[in-house]
Specification:
The protein is built from 6 helices and 4 strands, in the order H-H-E-H-E-E-H-E-H-H. The chain has helices at residues 2-10, 17-20, 58-67, 105-117, 129-136, 144-160; strands at 40-41, 76-87, 93-103, 126-127. The strands form 2 sheets. It has a two-stranded parallel sheet. A two-stranded antiparallel ribbon has the order 2-3. The longest helix has 17 residues, at 144-160. The termini are far apart.
Length: 161
């Protein structure tokens, strides 16, 4: 099928991936098309703001997120301005995320595995406030980083027995 795609490329016409029998997530060469990289994991569903976080300013919210955390991996929250590697028209880097973000041992250790599962090539380094409300301060078993870390710990414990 690469001969046909090369022939069609000469005439500036893209071949139909479905007609070639490739998956819709692939780019014709048989490799998966990479999604744009992100530093902040913001894939969590939007959740309502908890009662204890209503009306807090950003400084107090970061402190309250730390105090209401129930995760064993001790997330650390703070104000982050994360820049992309893309230069804007004025010559400055474009901000990717500007707000409260958190990191923990599970995000640092398993950010790459979760990013690869999501089709990205660079690891996640932070989580946003929706993830914090949903997982760090709510139910940690909904967090993909926590699940990866506990799964790894369980497998190590089984090997040691």
């Amino acid at each position: 099928m690469s001969f046909i795609s090369d022939l069609l490329a000469k005439f500036h016409r893209r071949p139909d991936n479905k007609a070639m029998g490739t998956d819709y997530m692939q780019n014709g060469n048989g490799t998966a098309a990479a999604r744009p990289n992100k530093n902040v994991y913001d894939e969590a569903r939007k959740v309502p703001i908890p009662d204890w976080a209503q009306g807090l300013n950003n400084t107090d919210l970061a402190l309250q997120l730390r105090s209401h955390s129930v995760c064993q991996y001790a997330p650390n929250f703070g104000w982050k301005r994360i820049m992309t590697t893309v230069v804007g028209p004025d010559g400055n880097l474009i901000p990717e995320y500007d707000g409260i973000a958190g990191d923990c041992g599970a995000v640092k250790s398993f950010g790459m595995k979760v990013a690869q599962r999501d089709g990205r090539t660079m690891p996640y380094k932070y989580v946003d406030t929706n993830m914090a409300y949903r997982c760090c301060c709510g139910n940690p078993k909904k967090c993909p980083f926590y699940l990866q870390a506990t799964g790894e710990a369980d497998s190590v414990n089984k090997k040691l027995r």
